[in-house]
């Protein structure tokens, strides 16, 4: 079964003056890595992030997805940055690592802004009354927000980072 692949066109025009081998080498460098925006932290923080992201039906905790919705909301901005960056790389005016950094910073900013907006739905009163002290998920929100980060990883890398 063939693997599904997705590509986005940057609509870069190539004239007869351009050296196609150099252009291919510049573009090939873009296919080897990708930018990931997410949480970096310990195991406890990962559990909190997962509960925020997907909720817990057993505990009555609603979903408060901030990473997935942040990715969706930032897609247009990131596509615009990527298309402009690919053109600059094609002409040799920018390096791939510079583009990765621009995408990472913009993606992180959008995800943090989305995190700030997501306060709904609140914890159910029944769930909140059973919890004691700082065990409420909201108590760790700033810690969770501060753990948001971006990194450049190999495109072949799938699954958990170690």
Automatic annotation (TrEMBL):
Superkingdom of origin organism: Bacteria
Protein's name according to its UniProt entry: Uncharacterized protein
Organism this protein belongs to: Paenibacillus stellifer
């Amino acid at each position: 079964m063939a693997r599904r692949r997705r590509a986005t066109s940057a609509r870069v025009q190539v004239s007869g003056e351009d050296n196609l081998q150099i252009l291919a080498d510049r573009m090939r460098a873009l296919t080897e890595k990708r930018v990931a925006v997410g949480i970096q932290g310990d195991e406890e923080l990962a559990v909190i992030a997962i509960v925020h992201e997907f909720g817990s039906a057993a505990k009555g905790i609603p979903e408060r997805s901030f990473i997935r919705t942040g990715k969706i909301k930032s897609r247009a901005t990131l596509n615009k940055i990527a298309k402009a960056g690919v053109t600059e790389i094609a002409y040799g005016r920018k390096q791939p690592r510079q583009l990765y950094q621009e995408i990472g910073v913009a993606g992180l900013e959008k995800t943090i802004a989305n995190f700030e907006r997501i306060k709904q739905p609140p914890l159910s009163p029944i769930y909140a009354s059973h919890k004691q002290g700082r065990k409420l998920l909201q108590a760790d929100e700033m810690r969770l927000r501060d753990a948001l980060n971006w990194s450049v990883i190999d495109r072949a890398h799938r699954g958990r980072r170690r």
